[in-house]
Specification:
Elements (H helix, E strand, L loop, with lengths): L8 H5 L3 H29 L21 H4 L75
C-alpha cells in the first residue's frame, strides 16, 4: 500500500469497492498503531521519579511539582477546635508588677488587684555527669591455646 501516500479524490473515484475497503482497513490499522505509539511516548515523556522506577536525580530541575496535589486545606486551627492552654503551675517566686507614675506625678494607687498573670518558666542549667568505666586484669600470663 505504498501508493497511498498521495491519494486524491479523482484517484479514489476510479477504484473498486473492494479496493476502497482495503484502503480503509489499512488506514485504520495504521491509525491504531500510531495512537498506541503516541500513548507510549507520552507515558515515557511524563515519567518521573514519583511514577516510575527512575531515581529522583533524573527529574528535570526546571519542572516544579504541582503544589495543588499536596495542598489539603488552609493552615492553622480549624473551626470548632477546642484550644489547649498551658496550666498555671505553682510559683516558686512571685513578682508583682506595679504601674509606673502617671503623667501628673502621682505614684500612689489605691486598691491594686491582679488582672493578668504571666508565667515565666526557667529550666535549670544542665550539669554533665561523666563516668569513666575501665576494665581490670590481673598480672598472670594468658594461657596458650
Amino acid at each position: 500500500m505504498a501508493e497511498l501516500s498521495e491519494i486524491t479524490r479523482e484517484a479514489l473515484d476510479g477504484l473498486s469497492k473492494e479496493r476502497l475497503i482495503d484502503i480503509i482497513l489499512f488506514q485504520a490499522e495504521q491509525l491504531a498503531s500510531l495512537k498506541k505509539r503516541t500513548e507510549d511516548l507520552e507515558t515515557r515523556l511524563n515519567a518521573n521519579s514519583s511514577n516510575s522506577n527512575r531515581p529522583p536525580s533524573s527529574d528535570s530541575p526546571f519542572k516544579k511539582p504541582d503544589k495543588e496535589a499536596g495542598k489539603k486545606g488552609k493552615a492553622g486551627v480549624k473551626k470548632g477546635h477546642k484550644g489547649h492552654r498551658q496550666q498555671m503551675l505553682e510559683p516558686t517566686k512571685t513578682e508583682p508588677v506595679v504601674p509606673m507614675r502617671c503623667p501628673c506625678g502621682c505614684g500612689t494607687y489605691d486598691e491594686l488587684s491582679p488582672f493578668y498573670t504571666h508565667q515565666h518558666i526557667e529550666l535549670p542549667e544542665i550539669e554533665m555527669e561523666i563516668t569513666h568505666s575501665f576494665c581490670t586484669r590481673d598480672g598472670a600470663p594468658v594461657a596458650a591455646r
